[in-house]
Each structure stands twice: as structure tokens, then as C-alpha cells.
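ok so i was messing around last nite and threw this chain in just to see what happens. nothing serious, just curious
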Amino acid sequence: MSALQKTIMKNKLPPRVPRTSGVSKMAPFGAGRRKDYTPVSWKQYFHQSVDVEINAGTFRVYLSPEPDHPDRPRIVTLHGGGYSGLSWSLFTEEITSMIHCQVVSIDIRGHGETKVENCDDLSIETLVYDIEQVLHKLFSDGIPPLVLVGHSMGGAVAVRVSLQPSLEHCIQGIAVIDVVEGTAMDALASMQSFLRSRPTHFKSIEHAIEWCVRSGQVRNVDSARVSMPSQIINCETGKLAINEVESYTSVSDESLPAPTRHAPLADRIAEESDGEADGESETCPEDTVEHFIKPSAVGDGNSSMKYKWRIELSRTERHWAGWFRGLSAAFLSVRAPRLLLLASIDGLDRELTVGQMQGKFQMQVLTRCGHAVHEDTPGEVARVVAAFALRHRLTCPTELGADMQLLHTVPGC
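result:
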């Protein structure tokens, strides 16, 4: 079962009864367990942002500093459905410290700060054409070597982009994160119920980040603090929450009510324990089910309606199957070196299992993380991608990367 399927199925489970002995994982925030959910500016991770205009609209692109040589690869990151280019923030910080490269992180149509006329047109053909045009416009003087890295929906887009005749000669490598045709298609039947289980509104940016972490959507609070504000908009202004981050005033004293130790309540979210990435442990059977409760809106009254989701993914359902149909065959047909990162070894379908046994691509399984692998474990993902780039002689390591001996990382499971 893939990480995405696990996330969907766990939302249907009843609340887990908290422990009654030892240090409570449901302890009140005042008991030393309170995390910092205040938002962080993307400027701590990216050098600049540019708005690239193409016929379809204006696309936001976040850039790390330019590499030391124009022939160094540009790592083009494509996010999953509902996320944004800022979901790659911590990954960007990590990988640019390991190898000489530049990260190019794009807000896909309908997401983040990208503005187009038809936000609901997320057909695979449209998404691929968008990215193709953005790259040609961004690198109008000549497209440098590219390594495409895509997560979930973005992984499906990356595979198809790498097959475009105008870009194929520039693609030096492709990495797909936690998306496989078979398991993704199976998960689509439950996607609407998963989306309905999420809160519809939040009363502050801080509360949105808190939900993001405590629900398990992103397990890394540092990543959630920079990525979650790019996924919600202010209901009054219609602007993305990242525009308020630098002047943001903390409302931590109005945090979500702490879950009680006696009984779970419908308006509470049980917090995940530190160090348990997906709530599973061989020595603690009671932890095999990750628990959280998603209210329809976080808070009460009008104050709970200040922020809402940037994109209504449920309205794009007609496009979902198109993202993943034929993905495995397309991935195996890419001429450039291929890397597949999964959150579970059970995620492979038959076609990719055969391809992996034939050595047609490198596969790496990263444990103790959820579906948002690159946010939960950005350092590990960066290490794998950096080693992949070095193994195929696409770039050179930085001084830190050389000290890390990245090529000694054993590929595979």
C-alpha cells in the first residue's frame, strides 16, 4: 500500500485511545511539547522569485542562487496537487549545499502565486505544455542541462515533460517521488472522501500550519512553516498567505485546544509524536494507526473563516486519472537516467516491478515518512538525488558534499 493510500485510509479510522501511562503524547501545549507553528518566509530558502509570462498566464518560479558554471544542471522541481513550489524549500537548502546546481521550483497552474484564466484545467496535456513553455521562456538564451524532480502529480508531469521533443535533449535525469500508476489509480476512488475530511477554513496562518503538522499531511514542522502559507488564501483579500508572513503577528496564545487524555473530541486534533514519522512501530502495536481528527473548520464563529484553500482540488477530479494513466510505461521510456523514490516498498506496480528487476531505473525507499517525502525528510531526499546526479556525472559535489561521500550511498531498498 502506498503512502498516499495509507493517508487516505487512516482518515477513515476511529480515533485512537491515548496512552494512560508514561509521558503522554497528547500532553497540553503548556507542558513543554508546544511546537513553533509561526510561518517562515520563503526568502530564507530561495534567492529570488520571478514571474514568467506565457500565453496561458503568469507562473511563479522560485530560484536558488545561480551555479558556479553555466553547464551545471538546473534541478526543476514540480510539486504535487494542492502543494506549491515552496514545498521544496528545505530540499533546496539541502541539495544546493551538497552539489553545484540551481533549483528551479515552479508553482503549477492553479497553485501558489501562478495566475491563469482557467485554474481548473489541470489536464496532463495542459500541465505539460505549461511547464514546457515556462522553461523555454525562463531560459530564452538556451536551455541548460535539466534534472526534473516531481512529487505525486508533479512526478507525472515531469515524466511527460521529459518526453517532449523540444526538451528531451536537455533532460539529463529525472526523479519521481512517491507516485506509481497502479497504486495511484487505486487511490483515486477514495480521494474525494479524503478531501472532504480536511478543514475548509482556518482562523490564522498559524492554525493552518498546526493542522498541517498535527494531521500528518506534512510531518516536518520546519517545512510546513514555509510551505503551508502558500497553500491558503486570505478570504477577504483573496491573496496568498505568503504575502502576510513577513509582517505576521503570532497568535500562539489562541492555539487549537489541546486534546484531553480522557476522550477525543470532534474539534480536536491528536498530535503526532516526535520521531515517529508515520506512526508505525514494530515494538509499539498501539502506534500502528496514526490518529487525527479533521474538523470542517478550525475554530468557531466568523474568526474561523479567515483563510481557505488556494485550490479546490475536488473540482479537478475529471483530470486525476489522466495524470497517472500510462505513467509506468512513460517513465520506463524516458531516455535519461531515472530515479524512483518511494515511501513504501509495496508501492510498485507490476510494470515497474519488472522494470526494476531488469535494472532499468534506480529505486530508493525512504522509511519513516508520509506521502510528502521531500518535506518530511528533505535531507535524505536531497542526499539521494545528489548521489544520483554525481553517479551520472551531471555535476560536482560542493566541499560539504565531498565530505559527505555521497557516492557511497547504497542505491536500492
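not much to say yet. Residues 275 and 368 are 9 Å apart (CA to CA).
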